[in-house]
Every structure is written in structure tokens, then in C-alpha cells.
Amino acid sequence: MNDRIFNFGAGPGVLPEPVLHAAQRDLWNVASSGIGIAEHSHRGKVFDAIIGDAERECRELGGIGDDYEVLFLQGGASLQFAMVPMNFLPEGGTADYIVTGVWSEKAVKEASLFGAVHEAGSSKDRNHCYIPAPDAIRYSASPAYVHFTSNNTIYGTQWRTEPVPPAGVPLICDASSDIFSRPIDISRYGLIYAGAQKNLGPSGVTLVIIRKDLVEKGPRTLPTMLQYRTFAKEKSLYNTPPTFGVYMMGQVFRWIRQQGGLAAMAEINEEKARILYDYLDGSRIFRGTADPEARSRMNVCFRATSEDLEKAFLAEAARRGFEGLKGHRAIGGIRASIYNAMPRSGCEALVAFMREFEKANSGG
Hints:
By secondary structure, this protein is α/β, with parallel strands linked by helices. It has helices at residues 17-28, 45-62, 76-88, 102-111, 212-215, 228-233, 243-258, 261-282, 307-319, 344-361; strands spanning 6-7, 68-73, 94-99, 116-122, 146-149, 151-152, 157-158, 171-174, 191-195, 206-211, 286-288, 299-304, 322-323, 334-337. The chain has two domains: 17-258, Aspartate Aminotransferase, domain 2 (3-Layer(aba) Sandwich), CATH 3.40.640; 260-361, Aspartate Aminotransferase, domain 1, CATH 3.90.1150.10. It has ten helices and 14 strands. The strands form four sheets. It has a seven-stranded mixed beta sheet with strand order 2-10-9-8-5-3-4, with helices on both faces. A three-stranded antiparallel beta sheet has the order 11-12-14. Helix 2 (45-62) crosses helix 7 and helix 3 packs parallel to helix 4 (102-111).
């Protein structure tokens, strides 16, 4: 009997069931070692193989060449908001940020502690319901780097293609909520970072993919744990890493590859999102909040015709086994997060319930 319900939470999000079953086994005894994964030394041979496998799976999945380091860090994307400018924003320099939601606003706030920040583009004028067009982005004269957030969990928008920075300027991306949900051309980026807890694994580990020539750019006067070179040199083992999180990421990478890789994952995610958006476009009591051309394939955000109706919907949804649908506390509403591991059946079941709820609450 399956006693699990559908988890539409924005993060920590749903994980693939085969990965969870493997974790059940390996928490007890991993690799026939007689010890569970959460108990192994990060200096031992068993974990050395596990982190090595995780990196190889990540590289194969993302087409990541030897000119990039793959790092498993801690502190979440929020620490990267500070580490990026600490390492790459020189004194007297300017960093360009494209602001499309709360998380990019937080990144700007952190960067402002270390130097000048120029907002090259923003969607604040319409409550972040769209992605700025290329001709609306105005870069500064000589930015140290350009930073953007690829998917916006709170407002439900997503970049279709990455922005193009000025020639020679590193592009840096917070891809926490859509990393490996679709193909990615790593060569376009100087650095990509992503908290694991939406598409890659449990909370507590952060994936950083960084071009090797950028690793040494950080001032050596920074605290040791805030320099990318520290973790590149020690292969993410300078201190005790989040061993269980790294193990889980390796398992998730392998699961994505078994689904057919990133191209197949993109098709699956596109179809799941279409199921929800097609319903919303024809609904009489629900409406999507993001402009159609900017709609996220990861976070489907919508409103009902009244807040009272939203409360009733969320309460009934929870009783029916649909968890995590309440919108972010900053804006309210309803949000269905449909990350890689959310099965198509979850989207179909949610729409079936929404149709039923609409019929009962619209006189139709």
C-alpha cells in the first residue's frame, strides 16, 4: 500500500521514490560496508567512492567539462548571495544584477555589502509577473559579472534562455529551483549555484559549478571557508561535507539519467506544466499570475476569485492529500511546485480535484 500523498511544496520538495527506497536501504548499510551512509567518515574509502560517483554523474548529466569544478558546499543559495560578490566584485567595481523576484532581490542586498550594484533589468514594475526582454536589459559600462535567477519560485516565472552578458563578462546564475530540469549549456556560464532541496536532493547541500579560471579570483584575505579555491583544492572535503546530502544528490543524478537525461526531463516537465496551465486558462474561478511567455515549468502560481475561496480550496486540498499548495507568505495565493520528481499523475490528480472544486463553487 502506498501511504504517501502528493507533495507540491516549494522546498524541500518531492524526491524520486526509487531514490527514497535506496536511501532507506543505505541508511542502514551502504555498499555492504555494515555501516549506514549517515555514519561513514568523509575521509573513508566508502564515502570517497560516493562523492566521486556523485561528481561523475553530475558531469555526465550536465555535460560539464574538465574546465569546470563541481563543488558540494553548505550554506544554501543564501550563502552564495554573499560568496559571489566576496570573490568576484573587486574594490571599485560594479556587479550587474537582473532582478526578477525575491531571491534576486536578496542577492542584490548581499552584493551591496561588498561593492556597487547596478540593476541591469527588473520586473518589479509589474510585481515580477514577467521576464525582462533582452532589449530592456541595460548593462553597466564594465561589470565584474552579471547575475540572474533562472526560475522564480515565489512568482512562478522562468527564463526560457539565459541573458547574454557583455563579451568577456562571467554570467552567474542562481538555478536553485530549476537546475537539471532541462538541458543547459554550461559553457555560457562562469558559475552556477543551486540549493539541492528542490530538484537535486535534501536540504543542506549546495551544488556549485564554477569555471576553473574563476576559482583563483577571490582575494586570499577572505576567510578560508568563503573562498572557492579552498573547496576546489580539497575536492569539497576541506571540512566535513553534508555526507548524506551528497549521497542523495548522486542518487538523484542517476535517477534523472535513467529517465533519459535532461532533454527527456524537459519534455516530461513541459507536459506536466501544460496539464495545469491548460486547466487554469479555461477556469472560471482560478487564474495564473505569470505572463504566459514567462510561465515557470517548476512553480505554477495562481489565484482564486477571492481569498476566502483560496482558503477553502487549500483546506479541502489538504484533506484530499495535496500538500504544500499555499503560496509564499510574501504574496499569498496558491502554488503548485512540480519539480522533476513530481509524477505526471500528481498533476492529473490535482487538476481533477480542481475541476471538482470549481464545479462545486461556481454553480457550474
